[in-house]
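Worked problem 6 (solution included).
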Amino acid sequence: MIGIELLDDPCAEPAAVRAELRDIARLNLLFGGVRAVVGALEPFFAEATTESRANDWTLLDVGTGLGDIPRAVARAARRFGITLRLVGVERNRAAALAARAQADPTLAPVLADGAALPLGPGSVDVVIASQVLHHLPPALAVRWIAGLNAVARRAVVIADLRRSWIAIAGLWLASFPLGFGAVTRHDAVLSLRRGYRRHELDSMLRAAGIEPVARYRPGFRVVAAWAPMAPQR
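Solution. The predicted structure is:
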């Protein structure tokens, strides 16, 4: 692992965690984090609509932060006649409390570790993990991928940052007019340095027994989306 980010520390100071999560939510909105996940899930929503499947789904967001991405997904799902019940998992207590404090109460935050989800196979319809894998050592990330695949019933989306020096330079420059603090600036750059190229994410998918499906998306994002599958042997 390269360096240490504030959100790597489960005991980080709560006010600092809240401030950084607010900055991350702005980055997600401005630089493609929200769109990457919503765009990956829209084909699954559209397919379910054409097949007249049940329109009451559950969505689990592992590493939910303030819950900005699952809430955006829920708004998109409503356009297809699908209602999502949202659960967000955080291992950082301050982050879970910050998600619970949002004005929109549609997401239920749960304090848990994504490596040991307290859920049975196929117990939720959709599982997403956005900008989480780069916080994990590769071997642990592989176990996460397999675990997310196991608990999902309809779709899994893993989205992360695409490592790029252009993105790092652009983010550093943009952080000043956006008013980000020094900690957010440091962590955002470090996150991009930890990010993945498509072949690297595909390699972890293979190691987890999943067909490689990673794609690049705007905003220097790399996304893998698939219907849950039996692990390949």
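Discussion: The helical segments are 14-30, 33-50, 68-78, 93-100, 138-151, 165-175, 182-194, 198-207.
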